[in-house]
Write a structure and sequence with these properties.
Distance between the termini: 21 Å
Largest sheet: 8 strands, parallel
Radius of gyration: 18 Å
Strand order of the largest sheet: 2-1-3-8-7-4-5-6
Length: 320
């Protein structure tokens, strides 16, 4: 296929026959699945399932991350024509990737949402697919980790964020975007000794043993030194990556609920993600994209790139 195929191809989210390969249709038209992947609930033989969880219950300042999955999918239309630059291979040629759509839930039954997320991600994992999840606020990562740990045991975690999200919260009924990691560690879902948080720039009195590589250290010591520290902590453990878009400085991602200055530049985030090639990645998410606060679409574009990098990481060990 080539770009000239856009003359006849459209809505490949529904019409494409094969799961692999790039996609060529006009970026401004057609059904906006992630990277124009086929929309399907049938995960038989699928390597990577992209799914959306359009849920935000309460954020520190600005709501709207429920619109994140839709905006990220739309932004990804710009990336569907070519393999991600600089990787040296095309993950869409070695992985069967689909968009299995959004999770259904009752917006008036907030307390029921975490259980639905755990079941939704559990079904993806049980089908043998690696999940790449588009959020939604950061509370969604806790039930995702419950589903992962139920099948893999406690995992290593690489968190990109402005906030450590380990504020104390021992109320099982609270659904909070700022305490997912506290609960994940307390519930034995994440091994803190094998976990690291990158880009942090807010104080927290107790990070529960997770290594903190704050944004200032990334700026000061550079990408290579940061990656060496991350790899030393994670080792060869199965690892889950969660990327809160506010890890980026507001200059690069203004459309988030909790912007904090002094953050990572987009080039740093790209280099850090790419530098993880070879880790035993079992899934990941990108959360907190809040399109109403960014009319340029830059935040959604960043979110789409993060999701593509996660897919490229998942395919790295299977490339030819």
């Amino acid at each position: 296929m080539a770009l000239e195929d856009a003359k006849t191809q459209v809505d490949q989210a529904f019409t494409r026959q094969e799961l692999r390969g790039l996609s060529f249709e006009n970026a401004f038209g057609g059904a906006t699945s992630f990277l124009r992947r086929r929309y399907t609930k049938d995960l038989a033989g699928v390597d990577v399932a992209v799914t959306g969880i359009p849920f935000d219950q309460a954020v520190t300042h600005r709501p709207g991350t429920r619109f994140g999955p839709r905006a990220i999918r739309e932004a990804s239309a710009l990336q569907a024509f070519d393999a991600p630059y600089g990787w040296g291979y095309d993950p869409l040629s070695v992985l069967d990737v689909v968009d299995c759509g959004d999770m259904a839930f009752d917006y008036a039954d907030t307390r029921g949402v975490p259980g639905r997320i755990e079941a939704h991600l559990g079904a993806i994992l049980d089908a043998g697919a690696a999940p790449v999840t588009l959020g939604g606020d950061h509370s969604i990562t806790l039930p995702i980790l419950r589903a992962v740990a139920a099948r893999r045991g406690p995992v290593a975690l690489i968190q990109f964020d402005a906030h450590s999200d380990t504020w104390a919260d021992d109320d099982p009924d609270r659904i909070d975007h700022g305490t997912f990691l506290y609960k994940a560690i307390r519930q034995g879902l994440v091994d803190p000794a094998a976990s690291v948080s990158v880009g942090i720039r807010t104080d927290n009195p107790d990070t529960l043993g997770v290594m903190i590589l704050d944004a200032a250290s990334v700026h000061r010591d550079g990408v290579d030194a940061t990656l060496a520290r991350v790899r030393k902590v994670v080792g060869d453990r199965p690892v889950y990556v969660t990327f809160d878009i506010d890890a980026l400085d507001p200059a690069f991602a203004p459309g988030t609920g909790t912007p904090v200055w002094g953050g990572l530049a987009s080039w740093q985030a790209a280099a850090l993600l790419r530098g993880l090639a070879g880790v035993d990645l079992i899934g990941g998410d990108v959360v907190e994209v809040s399109p109403p606060y960014d009319t340029t679409g830059a935040t959604a574009i960043a979110g789409a790139h993060v999701a593509v990098e996660l897919i490229a990481l998942l395919g790295w060990n299977r490339r030819g």
